[in-house]
Design a protein that fits this description.
- The structure is a homodimer.
- Chain A is built from nine helices and 14 strands.
- By secondary structure, chain A is of the alpha/beta class.
- Chain A folds into two domains: 138 residues, NAD(P)-binding Rossmann-like Domain (Rossmann fold); 191 residues, Dihydrodipicolinate Reductase, domain 2.
- In chain A, the strands form three sheets. Chain A has a six-stranded parallel sheet with strand order 5-2-1-6-7-8, with helices on both faces.
- In chain A, helix 1 crosses helix 9 and helix 4 packs across helix 9.
- Chains A and B meet through strand 9, helix 5, strand 10, strand 11 and strand 13 of A and strand 9, helix 5, strand 10, strand 11 and strand 13 of B.
Chain lengths: 348, 348
């Protein structure tokens, strides 16, 4: 184990941090040392990883001395405070918060889509928002073959995207669903003035509202998609909705391609041969993606692919993925793996 | 009470039938006699309505002798077997199944949208599908003022649309949600080969699939909207999805209007002054429609109204309504009330 990278995980006790550690082990990521970092509150906790016991340390600037790769998933404030400290000390930061995603010096990367952007990194690479990642995985192969003009997406997002407290809130409310007396405190946004029940409900607000009536989550989907796909002029609009599902985001997506005479089979074939995508689309066998069955799976699942009844260039599809894996932890690890493949992280 | 109509309710023990009876009383519908009809299985049951006890009778052709108005909500097979029997005996049938909706001799009516179509009735009037009704209520005032070119809708439909057994299935699964061992038997479609859990899941199938990959539910939304709005050429596409919510359908709707330079305020004003619509759209106060709060309310709730970021004529909105009320029972009663107002049902 002496040959390998020194890897730090910031937010090691969180839902995404835990998945990052799981995936580092599962994918045999070549680490020699693992530094598990978190807030002061969690410091001192013992965590077992692949048979070895680790003590969680408080994340401070000096934690990153000698670190090769640092995964951040402890919230935007921690990333803003510490990501540059880490990169100044020579670590490449893979940041899973929104802190740097739209920063022009920070590549925003989904390896299947824009791995080449990694070469422009200046120490920090941003992992896109969960709902964006799964969508661009499906859009990119279509764009490469047939062009892309317009995207309209409505999401069905799981509560785990809002953290462990939100999962707990749904669980408690689900158990009390008949009594109808939940006391919501977390969703839609912990810091917001009003909270609404999620069990037996759907909430058309994820994150805070901006002045144009779109939420920050919707802006993330629209802006990040343009940036990842290098399509600043893409016509794209999102409606993001929280549903009472623990894990697995679903998306109803309408697209218009550029080229004429593209058939349903063209779209299905392009998606079937794309990396990281599993097409589940046999309606006659009721075969289509669902979050219940996508949990703990790495792929992005695409189905219900249909030609629009009136627009020759329009298609509809249904995209589901585990928001904690491809939507977060897995994509972060894949970024690190791509840094090695591309020779940006020097072999040790 | 001798002055009034003889009213029959077929399917009086079902979820919609019960709501029809409730609304007949609540709205003081002028009935003199109420005949509560159902299948042989339910015959003999006692039901109390507004202080009077009624015995459920088996629905047979002869049940409709002397009946003025018959509300049908006992499934398409019963409507196909008995609706014409009822109308042949002089009753006006208001049918809440899909049996006659696309029949060219049967008006398909949402009173706020196409009350005038009632004058073409030949004994049977169809009540549209729940998900269609709430959408056309919002689309029609916009169409009247600004024209309508394109509609793309993704639904978040409640399980009560699939009947009492589906509600029970969600309840049982919600209570056992942590164990992850539900045994689905009803959803997505009782008669289908495969059944999937709905608690902690979303199912992108409502009703059966047709050869073009769209479901029958999606075809209903597309075809019924064109018929109700008399817009056979309208570009419309639907993706219909079941979510773990008991009552209240939600819809994420994208539209393109005809006229140029229509503002967000224009759309909001037109909707605010439309009958049967309540605009809930103050994002800064987290004020928007949700199914949890729409239950047992008569109106169609519209919010999250936004201008599309790239299409000058494009707008997004979020529409929620109680699928058992405006989506079913209430609209049926409103059709009967309109028949009186229009002089089609003669005053007694």
């Amino acid at each position: 184990m002496s040959q390998g990278y020194i890897v730090a995980v910031v937010g090691a006790t969180g839902a995404v941090g835990q998945k990052i550690i799981e995936k580092l082990v599962e994918r045999n990521f070549p680490y020699s040392t693992l530094k598990l970092l978190a807030s002061k509150n969690s410091a001192g906790k013992q965590v077992e990883v692949n048979g070895t016991s680790y003590t969680i340390e408080e994340a401070t600037p000096d934690s990153f001395e000698g670190v090769d790769v640092a995964f951040f998933s402890a919230g935007g404030a921690i990333s803003k405070a510490l990501a540059k400290e880490a990169s100044n000390r020579g670590a490449i930061v893979i940041d899973n918060t929104s802190a740097f995603r739209m920063d022009k010096d920070t590549p925003l990367v989904v390896p299947e889509v824009n791995k080449q952007a990694l070469h422009e990194q200046k120490g920090i690479i941003a992992n896109p928002n969960c709902s964006t990642i799964q969508m661009v995985c499906a859009l990119e192969p279509i764009r490469q073959h047939y062009g892309l003009n317009k995207v309209i997406v409505s999401t069905y997002q799981a509560v785990s995207g809002a953290g462990a407290a939100a999962i707990q809130e749904l669980t408690v409310q689900s158990e009390a669903i008949q009594e109808k007396n939940p006391e919501p405190q977390i969703l839609p946004v912990k810091s917001a003035e009003k909270h609404y029940p999620i069990a037996g409900n759907v909430i058309p607000q994820i994150d805070v509202f901006e002045t144009d009536g779109f939420t920050f989550e919707e802006h993330k989907m629209m802006n990040e998609t343009k940036k990842i796909m290098s399509m600043p002029e893409l016509s794209i609009a999102a409606t993001c909705v929280r549903v009472p599902v623990v894990t697995g985001h679903s998306e109803s997506v309408y697209i218009e391609v550029d080229k004429e005479n593209v058939t349903l089979n063209d779209i299905k074939e392009v998606l079937s041969s794309a990396k990281g995508i599993t097409v589940q689309d046999k309606p006659e066998q009721q075969h289509y993606p669902m979050p219940y069955f996508a949990e703990d799976k790495d792929d992005v699942f695409v189905g219900r692919i249909r030609k629009d009844p009136s627009s020759d260039k329009g298609f509809h599809m249904w995209i589901v993925s585990d928001n904690l894996l491809k939507g977060a932890a897995l994509n972060s690890i894949q970024i690190a793996e791509a840094l090695i493949e591309e020779g940006i992280l020097k072999e040790v």
